[in-house]
Each structure stands twice: as C-alpha cells, then as structure tokens.
Amino acid sequence: MQQKLRLYTYFRSSTSQRIRIILNLKEIDYEPKFINLLQGEHKSENHSQELPNQAVPALHLQDGTILIESMAIAEYLEEIYPEKKLLPQDPVLKAKVRGFCELINSGMHPYQNLIMFEWIEKYVEKFDRVEFVQNMLKSEFQTLEKLLLQNHGKYSFGDEITLADCFLVPQVMGAIARFKLDISLFPTIQEVYNNLKDLPSFYKAQPDQQPDFK
Amino acid sequence: MSTSRLAIRLYTYRGYSAPWRVSIMLKLKQLHYQSFFVNLPKGEQLSNMYSQINPLQIVPTLEINGELLHESMAIAEYLEEEFPRNKLFPKSPLEKSIVRSMCETVNSGIHPYHASRLYRYIHNYVNDINRQEISEPFLERGFTALNTLVEKHGGDYAFGNQVTIADAFIYPAFRGDDVSYLVSVDKYPALKRVVENLDKLPEFAYEHPDSQG
C-alpha cells in the first residue's frame, strides 16, 4: 500500500504554513512530520534524505518523490487537485496572483528566516531582529498594500480565495507575532487578513494549532 | 494569442540577473519586444518618472497589451500559457515541479542574498564587512542546493537535454553583473557544465549595459 502524502513542517515556519493552508483548502489528507528548526533538525544527517534542501516545507508524495520550494509545491497541488481552484482563470489576473505570492516568497521572507538571523548574530552582539525586519520589509508591505488596494474584494483578489491569501496570511501573522508589525498602517492588508484568518482552513493551519506548537 | 499586433515592452537593466531572465524567456519564445531601460545601479526604479509607469517601482516589469506584469516566475508562467510554442516547461506536473524548484532556488534562495538593499541594511549594523563576506555563506548554500538538483535532473541543460525556464534563471544567476563578481561557477560542477552549454546559445547572449540607449 502506498504511503500517505507527507508534509515536513515546523509550526512557526510561515513557508510550511502556506502549504498547510493549501492542503486544508483542497481537503487533502496528509501526514505531518515535524522538524524542529530551532534545534537544527533540518541540518542533521538524520533528515538529509528527507529534506534535500535542508529546509521546510518538503512534500513527500505517495510514491516517495520529494517536492521542495513552497511555490513549486503550491503549483503542483493546484494541478493535481483542481477541485478547489486557487488560481483565477483569467491569465492576467493569474499572473497578478502569482506576482503577489512571489513578492512575499522572494522579496520578503528570505530576510526574516533563521539563516539570516543566525548569520547576522555572529557579527552583531545586540542584534534587534524586530528593527531589522521592520526596516527591511517596510516598503514591501507598502507594495502589498498597493496591490491589495487595486485588486481586493473580500479576499486578496476578489471574492474567491486564491494562492495570494495562502501566502499573505502566514506572512502577516508572523510579522505581527514576531516582528511587531503594526497592521493598522496597512488598512487593506488588515481588512483582508481579518476576513481570512478565522476561516477554518486558515485557522487550523496557524502555528498555535499545530501539534508541534511550543 | 496572436502576436501580430502585440505590444510587449520590458522594463529592464541589461546585465542584471532578474530582468535578464525575462529577456531570455522572450527570446526563447521568439517574441518581439521593446526595451525600456531603468538605471538600477542608480536607483532609477524609485524615481517619480518610473513610479508613473509602475507604482510598484519594480524591475523587471513586462508590459503586455497595456497590462503590467511583475515577478519573473509569474511572467514565465504567463508567457508559457499565452504563447504555447517553444515550451519553457516540461509536460508532467511532477517534472514541472522540479523545474520550478530550480527556478525558486534561484529566485528566493540565491537572488535575495545579493540584493543591494540587503547590503544597505547590513551596513547599518556591521561597518567593516564587504559584499563578498555578506553574500558568500548564503550563495554557497543556495548554489549547493541548486547544484544538487541539477546533478540529479540535468543533462546538457538544467533539466534533461532541452532548454527550460530553469536555464533562464540559472544562467543569469552566474553571469549577471549583480552577482558574477561574488561567485565562481567552477565550484559547482553540474552547474558549470550547464552554464558552459548555455554560453553557446544566442538567446542567452550577454547584453552590455552600455548598449542601452
């Protein structure tokens, strides 16, 4: 018998949270495997086969194939499980949704991950992670706000949930919890975020709802 | 989509890795386009003039039939769907996922770590450190991961023996002016082989920034 779909995840990893949301929205059954990033489990020899890029998320398919990179995983799930669509039909709108996700994926998240902080903290004694992230990401949050202003309905893009929402919520949730983001500075982000975060698929994916939450 | 009356305009800076990816894609798809040059080293993307064109102040931006598209990966997916000839992605969802993971390793695992804004912020905290020292550990990590992917799945090119979108991301990741001084392809044998094969292809030819009018 083939194994279940397996997601390697860490409760506080916003990249893992994106995939947890998508799996919930598409009602895909999976087995979570918990990797403790704080304890460096992602770097250990024990997990080197399971985490080919030493990172979460990693999605192991039923036949053992391993997928990495949250955007690549999201696109795969969208193609294989098309029932609950997370990308609009219109090609330009689809490109805008993807562009929004990538802004977060490559324009924001890399500057707040553990490898960045671990590196800086070797050089800077009293490094203030909060101040660093706030400075690095201020104009990117403004860009997200502009994009939402142009495109939002109940959710990021109109009134249907898209991948943009799956990327937005973890980014904002993490920024509020860990980097003191004042979301009231970004009223459209705030409105959309509040419409999304308590929806069951989103709520069940959040860090404090995970079995490995500490 | 018919290309007979299509207006495609690329906001770009020649030699820089991110916009270079998009010009490679357009050439691979044999799409004619105009280039508008935005002086990235001088921060021209933040100027009032460019902000009128694109309030997001981002380069690359692709203007196609009056719509502004940003983010090279989103643009790649759009071009693939709208111009199906000269495919940039392989067929199956699984193979596509592998190619996408190569692109994303560059896009979010390498490129952010040689961005000028990163240097600006780090220099607020650490004075006596140069760009090489800042970027090196991150680039090593990213390129090592990329080399592993290409070792596993590559042939003449990044994915098998056909050029894909992964090559359009990987080639500028080494040859781009914003990164080539920071990394040597010699350290990564699987990537070296691919980059040297791509050196021979006209769609990947370097365009010098001085050639911008």
Automatic annotation (TrEMBL), chain A:
Quote the cellular component terms of the Gene Ontology held in the record.
Answer: cytoplasm
User: Which Pfam families does the protein's record reference?
Assistant: GST_C_3, GST_N
Residue ranges annotated as transmembrane are: none
A single Gene Ontology biological process assigned to it is: glutathione metabolic process
Please report the stretch or stretches of sequence annotated as the GST N-terminal domain: 3-85
User: What sequence ranges are listed for the domain GST C-terminal?
Assistant: 90-214
Database matches in PROSITE patterns: GST_CTER, GST_NTER
Family recorded in the similarity comment: Belongs to the GST superfamily. Zeta family.
This chain belongs to the protein called Maleylacetoacetate isomerase
UniProt organism field: Paramecium sonneborni
TrEMBL record, chain B:
Q: Name one Pfam family in it.
A: GST_C_3
Residue ranges annotated for the GST N-terminal domain, each copy included: 6-87
**InterPro entries given in the database record:** Glutathione-S-Trfase_C-like, Glutathione_S-Trfase, Glutathione_S-Trfase_N, GST_C
Q: Which GO terms describe its molecular function?
A: glutathione transferase activity; maleylacetoacetate isomerase activity
The GST C-terminal domain extends over 92-213
Name the source's superkingdom: Eukaryota
Annotated signal peptide: none
GO biological process terms, semicolon-separated: glutathione metabolic process; L-phenylalanine catabolic process
Query: Would you tell me the protein name for this molecule?
Result: Maleylacetoacetate isomerase
Q: Which organism is it from?
A: Paramecium sonneborni
